[in-house]
Specification:
Distance between the termini: 22 Å
Bound molecules: adenosine-5'-diphosphate, magnesium ion
Number of strands: 19
Oligomer: single chain
Radius of gyration: 28 Å
Length: about 725
């Protein structure tokens, strides 16, 4: 064992960075999107009338005209076959939080014993994977486990290359035959429809007559760790759970703050370059790469896209980056907290809305009209975040993220909105009804209120806020790195749709009573800011003072997954998602059950691995060291010395071994407690018993790691795993 741990270290030093992507023509403009059935390819390969119909379907989110399906399928197949594809797959997003695929060949044998490659319109638009083994949270009895996948033409199909062939990936939604959503994409698409309807209605009332469609946009910043594959393979905890369940802090950690934005080591940069080329070919616009706060931690961020496409792309980003990491002899970790005591990994969801005229609805404008529209939409979002804060918390609640939210590194578990000083001042003055003075010379008219010109560039960025306005978009920062982003996006979309409709209702009512549009808008903006200003917070989200203040303001502070998850079933949640036809009560119930099941299972797996590693790996190593110490004390005594400090050391080691064994037995007992059928109670109970019991086992084991002979210690240490050269 020991020799292996040591030799890994020397091997790493010898490992040179090398590229796994062939070095031929790799100019970005030549390779970007080469494996995507995008608008350009469609225009080129489809008859004009078919292309027009398809383009209209895509931009209006209509259902596909069946008369063109065969033509589209044939063109897509020919294109894919030219790239070497032999198979296609309906690619979908079951409630596991991962993606799923079942491959079928284009191969069709003919009567002459030859083979054709065929692909029909029905094969493109609909598939029938066996749904029985996917989690449904009790939505369907297994015997009627018929699910179907339906093509989502709004997210482009793509070809994935493999060493021995290629496969056409068709993004799809996954539903039961009775129409219930069994996946993450369906509610996202439904929420886009709701947002578009509510957004278009409000913009028309505010005078944007050219708006026909509104959609959400997302830019997903992905954090991750890289660990050498050989170390990874020697850590059963990382392999089984994605995080280390043991490990004493390394000498250096992140205390010197020298990793963030530091120069990127050659082996890592080479890996990043490989991933970027692979992602460019798939039309995924990754733009930013840098070292993150913790040693061994990095980030990749793309240019934003329509949220549905961005969500699909984020799944591909995580998959491709994991695959390529393996080729480079590394493991990519997207767990929220792979290493205790170091920064965890999150995923910032930058969110905004766009419309068909090309405007970003969260861009503060130059003209009075633009600013009026901006303030109405800003107020709407603040209302939504305050009114449905618990739901925003639900959507980021899972076992991994419990290590971050509320700990002093990620946003707190309290959902609040950061606006920045300038915008906040304007809001406060609006609430007071005062005439705001500004250091900026320009003033604009919002209804009867005179406002200073809105700040264009909001540079003071508060890193502790979970929901921050960053100039022309909101940044929802509470997501965990491993998360599928469809959930957070469809929650935001639905909450915002509700608020946009509220603004429309209020403005229409005032106008009916004789107000002008701008006075009506002015009034609702003031009312909404007054009612919901408690959610605005621009200070330090990590401080105890904020926790106290938030409690006074009545803001929810849901510290763990079970505490948050239960609000998914609140009447308010069922009413909201039902009204916008995003999720039915049954669909919510199934997702709620799955959330809790996942939580319980995750803790159970972690506790099993903790017990196993303590017993089979750590105690035996400590016993060896104990015997070594005892032998050397005996030998020293026999030779006439009095090894006093050594005896103390032996007593310390012996004590810790005893305590470790006892803590492991206590964890056995905790894991065996009976629980009933109520998932919420079980989750709460699991949390209250397993987490502290695992913590105690770890505490004793880590203390031993600090004492035991390094040559005996069987697990790769933090200082080794985190220092990739
Ligand atoms: P930071 O690290 O400071 O948070 P980055 O520049 O790394 O900022 O990331 C900002 C992200 O926000 C990028 O992915 C960017 O494309 C995205 N973004 C910019 N504008 C919008 C928008 N209108 N809608 C959604 N995302 C956006
Ligand atoms: Mg960010």
């Amino acid at each position: 064992m020991t020799a292996t741990r040591k030799s890994i270290g020397s091997n790493i030093a010898a490992r040179t960075a090398k590229s796994y992507v062939p070095a031929e023509a790799q100019a970005v403009q030549d390779i970007y999107g080469m494996y995507v059935f995008n608008d350009g390819v469609m225009r080129q390969r489809l008859p004009k009338d078919v292309y027009k119909k398809l383009a209209k379907t895509i931009s209006n989110h209509d259902s596909l005209d069946p008369s063109i399906a065969d033509t589209v399928a044939a063109a897509m197949k020919d294109w894919a076959v030219e790239l070497g594809a032999t198979h296609y797959t309906h690619w979908f997003h079951p409630l596991t939080g991962m993606t799923a695929e079942k491959h079928d060949a284009f191969l069709t044998p003919d009567e002459n014993g030859r083979a054709l490659q065929q692909f029909s319109g029905t094969s493109l638009t609909q598939g029938e994977p066996d749904a029985s083994s996917f989690p449904s949270g009790g939505i369907r009895a297994t015997f009627e486990a018929r699910g179907y996948t339906a093509w989502d033409p709004t997210s482009p199909a793509f070809v994935r290359m493999n060493a021995n062939g290629a496969t056409l990936f068709i993004p799809t939604a996954f539903c039961s035959y009775t129409g219930e959503a069994l996946d993450k994409k369906t509610p996202l698409l439904r929420s886009e429809a709701a947002l578009s309807k509510a957004g278009t209605r409000l913009l028309k009332i505010l005078g944007s007559s050219a708006t026909e469609k509104v959609y959400s946009t997302a830019g997903l910043e992905q954090e991750y760790f890289l660990v050498d594959m050989e170390y990874y393979n020697q850590r059963p905890d990382l392999v089984a759970t994605g995080r280390t369940l043991f490990g004493a802090a390394s000498y250096k950690g992140q205390s010197m703050d020298d990793h963030y934005f530091g120069s990127i080591k050659n082996r890592i940069l080479t890996y990043m370059e490989d991933t970027e080329k692979a992602l460019y070919k798939l039309g995924i616009p990754v733009k930013t790469r840098h070292n993150e706060v913790a040693p061994g931690q990095y980030e990749v961020a793309p240019v934003f896209e329509s949220a549905n496409v961005a969500v699909d792309h984020n799944m591909v980003v995580m998959e491709v980056m994991k695959e390529i990491a393996a080729k480079h002899g590394m493991k990519m970790l997207v767990h929220e907290k792979p290493f205790a005591g170091l920064n965890g990994s999150g995923k910032h969801c930058n969110w905004s809305m766009g419309d068909n005229t090309g405007q970003n609805l969260l861009e503060p404008g130059k003209t009075p009209h633009d600013n009026l529209q901006f303030m109405v939409i800003l107020a709407a979002i603040i209302r939504g975040v305050d009114k449905y804060a618990k739901l925003l918390r639900v959507t980021v609640a899972h076992a991994g993220n419990d290590h971050r939210l509320g700990a002093n590194e990620a946003p707190p578990a309290i959902i609040s909105v950061f606006l920045g000083d300038e915008l906040n001042r304007i809001v406060q003055e609006l609430i007071k009804g005062a005439k705001p003075g500004g250091k900026d010379a320009g003033t604009i008219q919002l209804g009867s209120t005179v406002l200073p010109a809105l700040p264009k560039d909001n540079t003071d960025r508060n890193r502790t806020s979970p929901f921050a306005f960053t100039g022309n978009k909101f940044e929802f920062r509470a997501l965990g790195a491993s998360q599928h982003v469809a959930g957070p996006v469809f929650f935001i979309n639905t909450i915002v749709a509700d608020s946009l409709d509220y603004m429309s209702d209020q403005i229409e009512a005032s106008m009916k009573a004789g107000s002008s549009m701008s006075d009506a808008a002015d009034k609702v903006v003031k009312d909404v800011f007054s009612t919901h200003q408690r959610v605005i917070f621009n200070g330090d989200g990590y401080s105890q003072a904020w926790e106290d203040e938030a409690a006074k303001r009545g803001l929810p502070n849901l510290k763990s997954t079970p505490e948050a998850a239960k609000h998914f079933m609140d009447d308010e949640s069922i009413e909201l998602f039902g009204r916008y036809k995003v999720l039915s009560k049954g669909e919510i119930e199934s997702r709620y059950n799955i959330k809790l099941e996942n939580y319980i299972l995750t803790l159970e797996i972690e506790s099993n691995a903790t017990r196993d590693m303590a017993r089979n790996i750590i105690v035996p190593a400590a016993l060896k060291y104990q015997a070594e110490l005892a032998n050397s004390i005996n030998a020293a005594a026999a030779a006439g010395s009095t090894p006093k400090a050594q005896k103390n050391l032996l007593a310390k080691v012996t004590g810790l071994i005893d305590q470790l064994i006892e803590a492991t037995e206590a964890l056995d007992a905790a894991a065996e407690t009976e629980h009933g059928h109520d998932a919420l109670k079980t989750a709460m109970h699991t949390r209250e018993t397993l987490i502290p019991a695992m913590g105690l086992v770890r505490e004793k084991a880590d203390a031993l790691e600090a004492l035991v002979d390094d040559a005996i210690w069987p697990l790769p240490k933090y200082r080794e795993m985190l220092m990739l050269s």
